[in-house]
Amino acid sequence: MIEMEQRAAGALNGVAIADALGSATTFMSHKRIVKLFGKVVDFIDPKLSTVHESLARGSFTDDTELTIVLANSILECGRVSSECFARALVSWAREKNILETTIIGPSTRRAILKLMSGERIDKAGSGGTTNGCAMRISPVAIFDVGSSIEDTKRDVEEACLPTHCTFIAIAGASAVCVATKRAIEGERSVMRIVDSAVDASMNPECSRCGGHRQRLHLRIEHALRIAEAADCDENLLTSLYSFMKGKRKALTEDAVPVAMAIFYYARGDFNRSALLSANLGGDCDTIGAIAGAMSGAYSGICRIRKEWIKTVRLVSSVDLTRLAGALLHAKGN
After folding, report:
1. How far is CA 19 from CA 43, 178, 274, 329, in A?
2. How many independent structural domains does the chain possess?
3. Domain of 75: which CATH number?
4. Range of 61's domain?
5. Which of 136, 155, 197, 333 has the least C-beta neighbours within 10 A?
6. 63 is in an annotated binding site
7. Is the CB of residue 257 less than 8 Å from the CB of residue 222?
8. For the chain, what is the radius of gyration of the CA atoms?
């Protein structure tokens, strides 16, 4: 049980640390990151960032904040509930005046506005195809340790509905959640973890979704082939940056396959995964959060750099280890 607690703590701390590492380089091109920083090896002051310039060094972004909002909604309601999360999301947005900022993604912003106006939950999340659901899904993975994959996929749907009620977004979140869950449960084969993620992305539970059933699993498999062929870190990063196709490289079909490829290439090592994500470019704080959940769960908190854990804890004043433990034991796991 102690090892499982360490892996659950690794998942949540992994989200926050990799998010914070990527906060300064988010939406930069890979070439610009190389030009400005050479190589990111630690937290950077985000003053050069185009979106997070107001943050302090070591601060996480809305990726982790929304992960915490989802986690607390699960603990409050004792289950994963779209209604509970929608209420928590609106409360968070009002308390922090989120709509007056530019830190949240377009899908989440539209959904919050609709929820505030009284729109039905699944309607509020319709059209959400960006990576905001995949980035925050790790609390479901922790809460559902020991549950069946089918039950977990239903919980993923509940967690995504208020902001990302589309097949592609839920497929991506399902892949990340199942991979993180398998790692927390103790699976030590990175390949088997990745295979389970691909399977989860093929048939997501999405009873109220709109949009096409896009074949995310093919994009994940393509990204994994890139990782398999890469003979060095720079080759991997340039190839993965070219692989991403969205204008801001923030679509689910960009972030999830690339994060999965980084996790696979790094063989589950959190410290490598987090730095690769921060050096990639594009929406790299979110890619880091996704890769960080999976690799943090695989590595466990004991293998994450202690100075990184300390820095993020001091800056945020949030005890993510305690929160992970509460989620893990909420159903008697």
Report:
1. 10, 20, 8, 25
2. 1
3. 1.10.4080.10
4. 2-329
5. 333
6. yes
7. yes
8. 17
Q: How far apart are CA 232 and CA 237, in angstroms?
A: 9
Please check if 283 is assigned to a binding site: yes
Cα–Cα distance measured from residue 178 to residue 320, given in angstroms and rounded to the nearest whole number: 20
**8-state DSSP, 118:** T
CA distances (Å), 291 to each of 134, 136, 257, 285, in order? 10, 11, 10, 10
- 61 appears as a binding residue in the annotation: yes
32: its two tokens: 């610009």
Residue 286 annotated in ligand binding? yes
Q: What is the pLDDT along the chain (333 residues), one digit of tens a residue?
A: 569 999 999 999 999 999 999 999 999 999 999 999 999 999 998 887 778 888 899 999 999 999 999 999 999 999 999 999 999 999 999 999 989 887 788 889 999 999 999 999 989 998 888 889 999 999 999 999 999 999 999 999 999 999 999 999 999 999 999 999 999 999 999 999 999 999 999 988 887 775 566 689 999 999 999 999 999 999 999 999 999 986 666 789 999 999 999 999 999 999 999 999 999 999 999 999 999 999 999 999 999 999 999 999 999 999 999 999 999 999 865
Name the pTM for this structure. 0.96
Contact between 134 and 316 under an 8 Å Cβ cutoff? The reply is: no
For residue 8, give the 3-state DSSP assignment: helix
